[in-house]
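Final report, Chapter 2: Outcomes

The project's central promise was a pipeline that accepts a single protein chain and returns its three-dimensional structure in a standardized token representation, suitable for archiving and comparison. That pipeline is now operational. To close this chapter, we reproduce one record exactly as it appears in the project archive, with the input sequence first and the structure output second.
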Amino acid sequence: MVATDPHANATAAKPSGPGLLGQLIRFGLIGGFCALVDFGVYQGLRALGMDATPWVDVARAISFVAGTTTAFFLNRKFTFAGGRQGGAGQIGGFIALYTVTFFVAVGMNRWMLHLLPESVWKTTLGWVVSQATATVINFVMLKWVVFREKTEEN
């Protein structure tokens, strides 16, 4: 049978990414790995003496950049189909998104270190809250803005 619609084969041949559940699972697994990178760098820098203000904020900033950069490239490749179609616009979107989430993560970490009572878990709990906040923002913005899949309308 011969197709009369010239777009029928192009649409059928276009690789489709995982659905929302698949994206959430992949994002979670990649995010878990990248959180380990982030937390490991943070704890390593603190162990090297960056444990007091303002150095703890610098350590959090460096760890955020390390984890986030790793997450961008892994999610682009494995989670979001739109990431495989990208170009310079994705890099610009990534930079804008992660500039915002950078300040959210570092600011939330600072706020948690101010609010939480003194304990051995204070810095870890502050990091977890800041990481969770940034993660939610990142998934939403990566899926629907940075790596959105091209459709006939866009």
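Archive annotation: The helical segments are 6-13, 20-47, 55-78, 88-115, 122-146.
This record, like all others produced under the grant, will remain available to the consortium after the project formally closes.
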